[in-house]
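Observation: inputs received (chain + fructose -6-phosphate).
Thought: call the complex predictor directly.
Action: predict_structure
Action Input:
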Amino acid sequence: MCGIVGYIGKGNALSTIIGGLEALEYRGYDSAGIAYVLNQDIHIIKKQGRIESLKNAIDFSLAPSIGIGHTRWATHGEPSERNAHPHACGKFVIVHNGIIENYQELKKELEEKGYRMVSDTDTEIACALLDYLYQEDKDIIRVLTKVQDKLRGSYAFAILCYDQPDIIYAMRNQSPLIVAVSENDKYIASDVPAILEHTNEYYLLENGDIAMLKQNSLSFYHDGLEISKEKLVFEGSKEASQKDGYPHFMLKEIHEQPKVVHDTIAFYFDGTLESLDKNLPPLDKYRNIHIVACGSAYHAGLVAKTLMEEVAEIPVTCEIASEYRYKNVFYDEKTLVIVISQSGETADTLASLRKAKEDHIDTLAIVNVVGSSIAREADQVLYIKAGCEIAVATTKAYSAQIAILSLLALKLAYIRGKINRQSLLELQQEIETLPDKITELLQRQDYLRIAEKIYQRDDIFYLGRKIDYAISMEGALKLKEISYINSVSYPAGELKHGTISLVEEGTPVIGIITDSLVLEKTISNLKETSARGSHIILITNEPDKNMGDTIVIPKIHPLLQPLLTIIPLQLLAYEIARLRGCDIDKPRNLAKSVTVE
Ligand code: F6R
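Observation:
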């Protein structure tokens, strides 16, 4: 949701900032811009479209030593050069990630004071506000503190001032921002991948923090007072953000799943009750669970709901965070609210977490990005071991989320007397076979063959019951987000109540059957569609069931089965999108980290 990079140091600000923006392009990519200081003056270049267009417009030989850059995911105003960042107003030039909620009223006030905006953005309003307050007080730290009081909403800003062209200011509220340091240089970035080329040492700005970066000094302020901050070290590798020979990050990340699933499970569970006790939070007191998340993380929650209800026999509510945060929620001290988020920054999930905390309900976060807002604010956090995920469409993080959630279901099942120690050991034996089973599924040749038959269709339906319905939701989302095919998932028994009218000759219907209890029922539903001409693709762990194009996956313990079922769905989506020539790692209109409502 917009990427910010700033640089001040002894190197070339232009190439450093562009390199950083490229690493952050997953956050948004409808326009990009840069502002740099040369001969004490600030120069701005902006382009609509990808960073590549901006790059082509830059003369890198100028080699300035200070600048700020931005890659945008439009919120206010269409994607265009005019609305691209940086925005300039009066004495200031700024880049922004987030949404200023009271920008309309501020705009009115500022226009009454004579400001004329040239863009449709909320960012320009913030810049004008800054300029206006600066006219009354030339102490920029004090002015930024006043700006914080006046702005409502989320923001991370990097700021240049014409009067102080050798300083970068940065501040944040609700949108992530780090300040990184190497021997001679300092950086600002929305996320760690932007700086890994140069350093792994950084400071995390908290809400309300202001940073002042000069060639020879770095200072932090909060509430107008100088503060000291702890320097952090990022432990992940730079290689993790490269493609390792795969044509797309998404494919690379799909292929990382045997390791990610293994690492995630092995970190928390070794087949013993003691490991569950030591590594997972105490769950004894809870009588019901609320799971709250968005998108794929919500789909992982739906899988967990089914597993927890089936295996541990505990009631689970799974809600989309943007709904949960505004609705009447019924919970008490015996409820555990679990929020799931790869990025740890998703605005609605964060707001839901805060709502539960305000109501004094216990919260547990399942997060990938270490130190992210959700990870820091939840009462307890369990990190998935997915590593840095670059492709906008999540794959390995989804699987890792399911892996941890399955362990939580397992612990709940033990506590509630639904399984015994022996079952834990048996499960552990199955867990040991899991990476090889995933690898075997990754190596199958079926996906391209099937994709070639259906990639030109406009609509594709996914059907399943219970856990298979939950997984089909993610299969359909994967396909639609990267291939732009209208793909929808239905509980298999529901199709005939309306949607079956959309099935016509050749419509692909992907059926998922891994739960033998509902096997025959789902088969009947699939037959209802094939009687109307559908092209059935069946994904099942029942080797003797054959319908249309069938992909047989290995049968494994129900707690682990979703980790196999999802693989063909991810690879089918990938192959279809590739055949359609789509931009797989950066699908249109999307962003990796959704820090706005
Ligand atoms: C889809 C996808 C999104 C995210 C959703 C939540 O492939 O990645 O649906 O799952 O935006 O993001 P996080 O997990 O960062 O909270």
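Thought: report the result.
Final Answer: The pocket of fructose -6-phosphate is lined by residues 294-297, 341-343, 346, 349, 393-394, 477, 481, 593-594 (CB under 6 Å). The chain has a mean pLDDT of 94.
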